[in-house]
Amino acid sequence: MISVTSDDFRRAMAHFATGVAVVTTTGAGGEQGATISALSSVSLDPLTLLICLNRRSATCRSIEKSRRFGISILASHQEAIARRYAMPAQDKIVGEDEVRHPDGTLFIQEALVHIGTEVIETLRGGTHEIFLARPVHVTMNPDPDVGPLLYFRGAFDLTSS
């Protein structure tokens, strides 16, 4: 039997091209955000999606308390925003790239899609929390010429623009 190391697994999964999103929330520590690629639809009935976040992150802890988060699926020109929110620091929200929904949820301006959610269940997956959430509002960028920001083999793929 061949054993797979965490490095082997990380390199293998890097071959799965994925979209890039920023998840945002507000908690006791203020406004938090993190770049994610672990985002998936789960069910259309009931409407359910999932995200995965490292349990040590401030964003994860804030979502656990608030039970709400926003998802901004990033456009191809938003690599700098993805990099900023990928940094391991609190209070990455600075106001220049964000917009607030009337219900208070924070999103990244000019993203392809904004999805406001409410957490319905939390599961533990090793070092990460898996948040199952119900979408409560969705807004889509009307520009048909804007493509997604993709991540492949450890780098942002700008060929989709």
Automatic annotation (TrEMBL):
GO terms for molecular function: FMN binding; riboflavin reductase (NADPH) activity. SUPFAM superfamilies: FMN-binding split barrel. It comes from the Bacteria. Pfam families: Flavin_Reduct. This is Flavin reductase. Keywords: Oxidoreductase. Belongs to the non-flavoprotein flavin reductase family. Residues 13-158 form the Flavin reductase like domain. InterPro entries: Flavin_Rdtase-like_dom (IPR002563), NADH-dep_flavin_reductase (IPR050268), Split_barrel_FMN-bd (IPR012349).
